[in-house]
Amino acid sequence: MFFSGKKSIALLAAASLLLTFLLSGCSAVKSLETANTKISKTGFAFDTVIVITLYGTDDESILDGCMELADYYNRLLSATLEGSDIWNINHAEGKDTTVNEETYLLLQTALSYASKSEGAFNPALGTVIDLWDFNSESACVPSDEDLAKALEHIDYNNILLKADNIVQLLDPELKVNLGAIAKGYIADRMKDYLTSMDVSSAIINLGGNVYALGEKPDGSKYTVGIQKPFDDTGSAITSVSISNQSIVTSGTYERYFEQDGVLYHHILDPDTGYPADNGLLSVTILSKESVDGDALSTTCFVLGLDEGLSLIESTSDTEALFITEDYEFHYSSGFPK
User: Fold this and answer.
1) Nearest CA to 256 among 247, 271, 267, 242?
2) Which of 107, 136, 252, 285 is the most exposed place for a label (fewest CB within 10 A)?
3) Which helix (H) or strand (E) holds 277?
């Protein structure tokens, strides 16, 4: 998930927290904070603001542990950080690369989603992503010639997973990018860590990826707002109450630029190399595991409303909300309204 490079840090912090927590009122918040211990820490990783909030403990070292995990996984999974597993794969010129077991397993998961979606989710889209360069202040529409060349090297079947955590790119010019699934995986690992530290109530917020661990101190579910598209204040357009569940949103408003009066967003269609153009503003996924929600939010956005809803209805323990360009809501059958 990406932001327009022209946003200030202040707007980045507001816009990247796509899902804001909605509480019943200032007096209720104060009484909760008085009656229950609450600690929180904010950081920056994966090109987004991250916020970890714990209830029922005052152990700051647990928050430090979460931030250390964020840094650890960034050093494994970043496509741009020299020396990361993904960077090493992409610069091995087609030779075998031994990676961390977790990197290997996440690549397996990514490839399974690529197969299931027939390429709508594509972990081999790195050459195209690099061309658009939504992280840059000078992002612009790539030339047709450059885009056509990049599209020649996005076949995910050329990512070969061998025994002993060895990865080989059968196409040396292919570039792996796990940006559409990594934050979900990391949120799940943070959840596991917090559980191991006997934390039973927490919110993990990695930009558009939120995991609600347990319930609020008063025994109620967490109420999480879904951002109104293109509202720079981060106002919620609707909300969902969740417990021990992940909520992930992918939207056109997260990272984009405008050129010649046309908005170009970061969710790219592997068939064309251009931003997916199917009448959607956002897709929000509810799931037990955040890694699934992360992959499915991108997949369903690329597939579009009808195919995306069909995929969700065939996927157990998973629900979705699609918001179309007319700001209409389209729910899967089990989405809590």
Assistant:
1) 267
2) 136
3) none
